[in-house]
Amino acid sequence: MINANRPIINLDLDLLRTFVAVADLNTFAAAAAAVCRTQSAVSQQMQRLEQLVGKELFARHGRNKLLTEHGIQLLGYARKILRFNDEACSSLMFSNLQGVLTIGASDESADTILPFLLSRISSVYPKLALDVRVKRNAYMVDMVKSQEVDLVVTTNQPNSLDCLNLRTSPTHWYCAAEYVLQRGEPVPLVLLDDPSPFRDMVLETLNAAGIPWRLAYVASYITGGTRGR
């Protein structure tokens, strides 16, 4: 039930977009470039937002803008509000969108986030046909540049493409329950063959820690066979 004595506040979407940009980029200068405004305009917007909600949203730490407890609380709602606003606008504008959307997907994304994305796309654009092409992560950039696909879902962020971060996934080390790492012995690894962002991450981590390793099995695909070494 709404308390009649408490005024309802309508949050401005432009203020929320700038707020999210500052939260993500940590400085007014970087956020200003992201939202195509001047740094002073961003500063004024954040002052207006703080006045609107009646709370301090940022704690100054040098040049960086860190969120206060209230800022963190608002950030979650701001992301949801903007997402629902953008989804509503897209749904109304492109509800009759027809044709074929060709999507390239890396092996890793095909087994994780891709099914959810395909379901959402189909629900919002029921008349849109989807053509999905699964290949190794290394081929994603070339597939876009050669116009073989309209977009790609990949597990890293190529610098040569405009990217949207959909989620951050944790990474873990796995071994057999009975395996015991012997001090000084090379760690036997099961990896994808080169090039692979996960392979690079594993080897860089071990090398940085000074831990010896050896390739025990190498696979061309996650679901493919392996070859011993």
Structure description:
- The protein has 229 residues and is α/β, with parallel strands linked by helices.
- It has three domains: 13-92, Winged helix-like DNA-binding domain superfamily/Winged helix DNA-binding domain (Arc Repressor Mutant, subunit A); 95-153, Periplasmic binding protein-like II (D-Maltodextrin-Binding Protein, domain 2), CATH 3.40.190.10; 187-228, D-Maltodextrin-Binding Protein, domain 2, CATH 3.40.190.10.
- It has eight helices and eight strands.
- The chain has helices spanning 13-25, 28-35, 39-53, 69-94, 107-110, 114-124, 140-145, 197-209, and strands spanning 58-61, 64-67, 99-106, 128-135, 151-153, 187-192, 213-219, 226-228.
- It has a three-stranded parallel sheet with strand order 4-3-5. A three-stranded mixed sheet has the order 6-7-8, with helices on one face.
- Strand 6 (187-192), helix 8 (197-209) and strand 7 form a beta-alpha-beta unit.
- The longest helix is centred in the middle third of the chain and has 26 residues, at 69-94.
- The radius of gyration is 23 Å and the shape is globular.
- Residues 224-229 have low confidence and may be disordered.
In N-to-C order, the SSE pattern is HHHEEHEHHEHEEHEE
How many alpha or pi helices?
8
| Relevant CATH superfamily of the largest domain | Winged helix-like DNA-binding domain superfamily/Winged helix DNA-binding domain
Q: Give the tally of β-strands.
A: 8
CATH topology of the largest domain: the name is Arc Repressor Mutant, subunit A
- Number of structural domains: 3
| Adjacency order of strands in the biggest sheet | 4-3-5
Structural class: alpha/beta
For the sheet with most strands, the description reads:
3 strands, parallel
